[in-house]
Design brief:
- The protein has about 210 residues and is mainly alpha-helical.
- The chain contains 10 helices and 5 strands, in the order αααααβαβαβαβαβα.
- It is about 50% helix and about 10% strand.
- The strands form 2 sheets. Strands 3-4-5 form a 3-stranded parallel beta sheet, with helices on both faces. Strands 1-2 form a two-stranded parallel sheet.
- α9 links the parallel β4 and β5.
- The radius of gyration is 17 Å and the shape is globular.
- The chain starts with a helix and ends with a helix.
Length: about 210
């Protein structure tokens, strides 16, 4: 799901609502963070750390409103999910609240393809910790090294790498440092390179 733009809009709306201004580069530092960490980051960078809880609550409320009004899939995501579900169990490993994940996937007609939804809770730490990916791999009955993470943020890439997964990155070019940590980076999930790359990996596995 293309939720990052909704998080960005929610962050901007929250900052304006509280009359605060983010420091340069805030958008990249906040991308992919759990919403509680993002809310506190907003407060800390605005030098109003005492507003952390209020900003967190406003951020999540704003995000829920935006994503409910316009749940959007990344280009090529529905087709990729449908193909992958034919031969492998699928799981969502997300920093979003579980009800938001389920609502988004159901609205896009994709919920039935996923066997598991893993989000942070008391025992599972949010990304960039590896917990959500390790838990997802375990629930799918797979070694993490046999799993592929699809990520669109540096925070998510770090989580998947720490968990030992293969990684496909998607979205605007993230820079050499982040790109060097993934197996493949594409601008869109309907890029022909996605299936060409997957096909080569399958052929290599079958040849072993």
């Amino acid at each position: 799901m293309d939720t990052e733009r909704h998080w960005q809009d929610a962050r901007d709306l929250t900052l304006r609502e509280f009359g605060l201004r983010a420091a340069p580069g805030f958008a990249e530092r906040a991308k992919g963070l759990h919403y509680t960490e993002c809310g506190q980051l907003m407060a800390d960078e605005a030098r109003r750390p005492e507003l952390g809880d209020e900003l967190t609550d406003a951020l999540l409320a704003g995000f829920r409103t935006l994503v409910a009004a316009q749940p959007t899939t990344m280009p090529g995501a529905p087709e990729l999910v449908a193909h992958a579900a034919k031969f492998a169990p699928l799981a969502v490993a997300s920093n979003c609240p579980a009800d938001v994940v389920e609502t988004c996937l159901e609205g896009a007609g994709l919920l039935a393809y996923f066997d598991h939804i893993v989000v942070p809770d008391g025992a599972v730490r949010p990304k960039p910790a590896p917990d959500v990916y390790l838990t997802a791999a375990r629930l799918c009955g797979a070694d993490p090294a046999q799993c592929l993470a699809v990520e669109d943020s540096a925070c998510g890439v770090e989580a998947a790498q720490r968990a030992g997964l293969r990684i496909m990155g998607v979205g605007p070019w993230p820079g050499e440092e982040v790109a060097a940590r993934v197996d493949l980076w594409v601008a869109r999930l309907d890029d022909p390179d996605v299936f060409a790359w997957a096909g080569r990996r399958v052929a290599q596995a079958l040849a072993r």
